[in-house]
Every structure is written in C-alpha cells, then in structure tokens.
Amino acid sequence: MDQISVVIPTANRPDALGYALASLRAQDLGGRIQAIVVNDGGADVTEAVAPFRNDLALELLELEGNRGPSAARNAAMDVADGDFVTFLDDDDVLLPGHFDAVLPPLIEGLADAVYTTMLVSDVRAEPTAEGYRDARPAFNYDFDREFLQMANFIPPLGLTLRRTGPDWPRFDAGIRLAEDWELWLRMDREGYRFHHAPAATAVYHRLPRHEHKADPTEAESRAIHAFQVGYSHLCDLWPVAAGSVAARGRALVQRAYEIGFVQLDQHKTALSPFWYENVLRVLHDQYSGALAEADVETALQKAVTGRE
Questions:
Q1: Residue 9 in 3-state DSSP?
Q2: DSSP conformation class of 263
Q3: Which one, 1, 23, 124, 206, has least CB within 10 Å?
C-alpha cells in the first residue's frame, strides 16, 4: 500500500503541535502515515508528541539552532520513506478525508503535486469539519501558471507530492519567507504538474499574534514589512517582463502592502486578519476580468483594512 510521509516543522508551539498531530491521527489510512516532526531549535516537544506515538509512525528530528522552515522541511524529506510527502505546519490541521481528496490524481499519475481548497480561521478548534463550520474557504484557485507568477496562492499546508525520482524537490534553505512560493515556481519550471482538488480539507490559522505586545500595530507592521521584503526578494529572483500581466499583478500586491503600512503606521489600526486571502481574491478577480480596473483600488483598500 502507498505510504505517506507528513513533514511537520515546529518551533516553540507545542500546544499547537498537538492539534496538528491529532488531525493526522483522525485520518482513516490504516497506519500508512509516517509523521516526521522536526523541532527547529525550539522548546522541547517530547511531551507534546508522546500521546501520538502509539497511533502514528512518528519520528522526531532535533535541529540545533533555528534554521528556518526550508531547512526543517528538507531535513524531514531526507528521511521520508513514503511514496508521497505532505506538508503540515505545526499550527495548522488537516480535516478528516483530506487524503481521499489528494491521493487519487497522484496514484493515477495525473499530477505530481496536489493541493486542496482550505479554510482559514482566526480561532482554534478540534480538527473536525464541525469544529470549523464557521471558517471561511480560501486558496480555492485552480492552478494557473500566470497567476502563480503574481503571488503565492498555494500554502504548503496539505500539498502532497508524488515521488517521481530518487529525491524530493528541496526548498531553498537560504530563504525563510516565501520559501514555498519559490519552490512552486521552480517546480513548475521543471515540469511538475500541479492539480487543485476543490474539497476544503485543511485549516490555515490566522490567529492573533500581536495583541499582547506593548504596541500591537507596531509589532504587526514589523511582521508585515518582513513579508514584503520576502515578496520583493522573490520578485527579484523570478523577474517578469515589464508591462506584462504578471508585472501588473505584482504591482497590485505591492500596493496592498502600501495600504497596510498606512493603516498600521499612520492610523494605528490592525489589518483585517484575512487581509492576504482578501488581496488574493482581488488580484484573481482583476486578472480574470471579474473586477473592473476602476474598482481595483477600492477593492484593495477594503481587502487590507476590512473597511469600505
């Protein structure tokens, strides 16, 4: 039977890790899952993984120092025994039936990488569809090479790769932000076939992270700035023709960042918790012709700030 290796990088989130592992235990795969937890220089997770050792084929790798998500995922893939590898970050969950959605096109050889629609939530619940009945669908785009040049619409959560050779594709260990986008761009160039399974089978958490800081909006601004730097760096690594459709899309993403910094730095107001998902929707609507050019700025303002 086909085996699935699930790659789980973690760093200083042992409570969240328990939810991620519980969501794997809920999958009906009859012992076909190899769970590889990589502690990326964080607090000890021995107690967090202990309750799952009897139910999952679980390996725990310990890295010295925080080496970043790319290096952590690569370390797991070095020991992955499966016919397929799936990515699951420590603060997210897979819902029951996830592998029923992603495995058929991989087993049949119709695709090399399959991702699903997912739910986004700003609260954590038990990893069941009922627990997340109020979460909103997101990242529900069929694969489109041109759209991928504009922004990443495929989070690593739940994406599953079919082993097509002796080695898995590797993340660039020198990239800590937008590392997944860089790998998808590289894989697409190398001929990997991506497929979107429309079922909503995973939950991507947008939990509040800065509300306890002395200056929450300043902390959020720093975090968003880091992502903007990462986005700009990837755009430099993967240039597109000036004036192209992709270049226009990238300019809209940069405009969204500008709007966000005005909101945070001048108005001292937090962004919408789902601002990135909202911006992707505006970007896709503009790209597909569903949004008139004259309405793009207003739509971006609402997407980022959550206000008309």
A1: strand
A2: I
A3: 1
- On the question of pLDDT at 210 being above 70, the answer is no
Domain boundaries along the sequence of the chain = 4-205, 216-305
CA-CA distance, 262 to 272, in Å (whole number)? 13
Question: What amino acid occupies position 289?
Answer: G
**Which of 119, 136, 115 shows the shortest CA–CA distance to 127?**
119
The predicted pLDDT at position 133 comes to 86
Burial of 2 (0-12, 13-18, 19+ CB in 10 A): middle
Q: Which helix (H) or strand (E) is 117 found in, with range?
A: strand 113-121
**Are the beta carbons of 64 and 41 closer than 8 angstroms?**
yes
Instruction: Give dist(CA 110, CA 123) in Å, integer.
Output: 36
Query: What CATH number belongs to 4-205?
Result: 3.90.550.10
CB 160 within 8 A of CB 111: no
Two tokens, residue 88:
């699951």
Share of the chain above pLDDT 70, in %: 96
Q: Does pTM surpass 0.85?
A: yes
DSSP state of 218: H
Its sign, for the CA torsion 145, 147, 151, 154, is negative
Q: State mean pLDDT over 278-307.
A: 94
Tokens for 167?
């080695």
pLDDT tens-digit readout, 3-50: 899 999 999 888 899 999 999 999 977 668 899 999 998 899 999 999
pLDDT at 66: 87
Question: DSSP character for 265?
Answer: I
